[in-house]
Amino acid sequence: MREDLARTEILTTLGSGPLNRTQLALRLGLGAATVTEHTRRLIELGYVRELAPQAAGRGRPKVPLELVPDAAYTLGLRVHHTHVVGVLMRLNGSEARRFTVPFDPRADPVGQLAAVCARELADPAAGGRVRGIGLAVPGVIDQARGIVRISPHLGWSDLPLRPLLAERLPVPVLIDNDTRASTSAELLFGAGCDHDDFLVLAVGGGIGMGIVLGRRIHRGPDGVAGEFGHVPIDPQGPPCVCGRHGCLESYAADYALAARAYERGLTPAPVPVAELPRLAAADVPGVRDLMAEAGAALGRAAAGVVNVLAVRALAVIGESHVLWPYLEPGFRPAVESGVLSGVEIMVRPWDDSGHARGAATLALSATVAAR
Questions:
Q1: Which comes out higher in pLDDT, residue 211 or 352?
Q2: What's the number of domains the chain is made of?
């Protein structure tokens, strides 16, 4: 395990219940000295406390350690083109508070986001314990420099979002692509509890993929790793928001499904994305076949990544969870027939705060545990 992740994993492991240092070392595969040093610092910070010693056979009594969930918080924001969803998260990953505020990405976006964060930091109930802020943003993100390279859904390009927010806020700020932010949550609280290597497939207004190898989220040197939606399927295919043609996203993203339903004559007029679940549930002729085809395209592409990286777990997340019952009949057989070895497919329940929780987890890893 990487040393810079060890302290975070000690916190999240204690979130499931008290353990002594020996149990932590065994659970996390760490040396006794490493656990002792990290827990000493966490106790000093007030994030962990010792309980009464417990005698167990011969030797000195073991001292259980307990997490103090409300000792510190992180704030996560999911930036959408019409609103911002915020989550105030405890050290054990649970939500202390959730909120939604309107947002216009064209009208002083930095000022709007800074105002949201400042309001939360000023809250006397918890603001003084917020140790870091994470933002989950759709698009191509240079996470190291905190720059939004391009976000078609927000209309941004080369926006130095983190540096501009850092100038206005008194706590550390981090930003990342929304899928990779949620991959942080999956690493600490989901698939990462059982797997060191896994994939996170996000299906919604775009198609993204989080990649975890050796318990490390792979971002690539310029932050473009995981742009799964732009895997080319057919160069003569439909146009994609990236400016190319025939990307996977142009077949399987929710907006693409709505457009193709009209193009195929399945609907008399263009329909909004929100209508897709109703059309599928009503079994409008051809709609379920269209979605199964999209699911199969996703599955074939995902199977290729599974084979290349030799992972054994794939978590599915995203706003299209309401469409998943119609995508899955194509997706699962395509994956299972395409992988060389078995892969565990996990479908996560989803709501609008999912990426916000991921952003809060990103801040937990990078600021609270490292403080």
A1: 211
A2: 3
Residue 223 confidence (pLDDT) above 80 = no
One domain for residues 207 and 249: yes
Q: Which H or E run contains 308?
A: helix 287-309
Strand partners of residue 159? 148
Cα(107)–Cα(301) distance, rounded to whole angstroms? Answer: 38
In this structure, are 233 and 257 located in the same domain? Answer: yes
Range of the domain at 104: 71-185+354-368
- Stated pTM of the model: 0.89
Cα distances (angstroms) measured from residue 150 to each of 113, 122, 141, 160, 301: 18, 31, 7, 11, 24
Q: One-letter amino acid identity for 72?
A: A
Does the pLDDT of residue 366 top 90, yes or no? no
Average pLDDT on 9-22 reads: 92
* Contacts of residue 81, Cβ cutoff 8 Å, sequence gap at least 6: 103, 105, 153, 154, 155
